């Protein structure tokens, strides 16, 4: 029964990690694109510079969501607590 509880807790933790960890980057990307489009509308001559900086910023913001995805996959498929629980159960 303990194995089932660890599996359920891992899946719930992975779901929370992805849910909470995706909200921030999504809002950040939306604000970044809004600001970039406003800047381009005000200064069309600086379009190339603004776009380049925007893409670098978006890549940095997206890396946060990718880290959350990696942590979720570790919790689901390579749970570090799984061996601890099995050893405690005498398996």
Structural write-up:
The chain is an all-alpha fold. It has one domain (about 1-90): F1FO ATP Synthase, CATH 1.20.20. It has helices at about 1-40, 45-75, 80-90. Helix 1 runs antiparallel to helix 2. The longest helix has about 40 residues, at about 1-40. The protein starts with a helix and ends with a helix.
* Gross CATH architecture: Up-down Bundle
Protein structure class: mainly alpha
Which spans have pLDDT < 50 for at least 5 consecutive residues?
none
The fourth-level CATH homologous superfamily is F1F0 ATP synthase subunit C
Short description:
The chain has 91 residues and is mostly helical.
Mind sketching the topology for me?
Blueprint: H1 2-42, H2 47-77, H3 82-88
Helix pairs in contact: 1-2
Key terms:
about 85% helix, about 0% strand, mainly alpha, about 90 residues, F1FO ATP Synthase, 3 helices, rod-shaped
């Amino acid at each position: 029964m303990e194995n089932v509880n660890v599996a359920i807790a891992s899946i719930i933790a992975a779901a929370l990690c992805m849910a909470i960890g995706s909200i921030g980057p999504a809002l950040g990307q939306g604000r970044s694109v809004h600001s970039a489009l406003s800047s381009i509308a005000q200064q069309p001559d600086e379009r190339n510079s603004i776009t380049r900086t925007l893409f670098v910023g978006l890549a940095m913001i997206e890396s946060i969501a990718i880290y959350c995805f990696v942590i979720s996959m570790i919790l689901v498929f390579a749970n570090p607590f799984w061996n601890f629980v099995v050893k405690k159960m005498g398996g």
